[in-house]
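Quick one - first record:
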Amino acid sequence: MRKADLRRQMLQQRRALPQEEVQRRSQGIVEQFFRHFPLQAGQTVHVFLPIIKNNEVNTWPIIEQLRLEHPEVRVVVPVTDVEQHVLTHHHLTDEAILVENRWGIPEPQNAQTIHAREVDVVLIPLLAFDRAGHRVGYGKGFYDRFLADCRSDVLKVGLSLEPPVVSIADPNPFDVPLDAVVMPQGVWERS
């Protein structure tokens, strides 16, 4: 299926999910992530903050568990720079003041900027993915540009409420494939 068709279909499907189901699946993703991805002291984990109105995976429990059980791991979140069409990355601390942007994404306003090359693990939002590691997002390319700036050994982990589709028919040459995807019922890993 083509990206535009998948995007439309998955947005509609996701919006139809009851909030309780999104939370149940999100909790399964949290459990799978910590079961399959052991973290080490000194690592930097980039976590997207969810757009609640779009029924995105709720990543707040991941952030809270990182803070409680892995205080030696630095949590970084994105800020959207609309004019430059890029993401900037900021250390999320308890002191951070979060303000929703025009898409409903909470963003820290007073946090230290972190360079993309400092990130070890990136948790990536998506609408759909296939068994080759291609993903469909909202179509703006923010994450592809960000991932291109990361080190070659950065671990690219999608978070998905749904299982993979068979194939995305039209991946772009600049699309950065995922290394793994965490779903409520398990983890897909590129072989």
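second record:
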Amino acid sequence: MKRDGYVARWQGREYQASPDGDNIRLYQPEPGEGFDEVRAGRYVRVLPASEIEDLAYVRTTCTWQGQPFIVLGEHDAWLRVEYTGGRWPVAEAMRLEVFDFGVYQGWAPAAEVTDLREQRV
């Protein structure tokens, strides 16, 4: 699984999470005690930050065509990637989309991506 976002550990289990002031929102795909359905397949529980064992930001990084990227998502055999090398000529040569000033993204064939690893930031 390619992840890019907050994760929290509560009662020994890791959840997708989002900080919300002094609280942490925990998310899971199935119903559970104290979790409210926000949409089909998405349940949330809000807890005080003091009850959370660990909170971290996790991102998946990779190398594509010799350049550094962050993995933002995946679809079928493709990965949505964002270039982290910061060099416009490289981004242009790779035909990446200009997403924002200095931010270049594209779709990489998953089979061409190497060094796929998860990092806690």
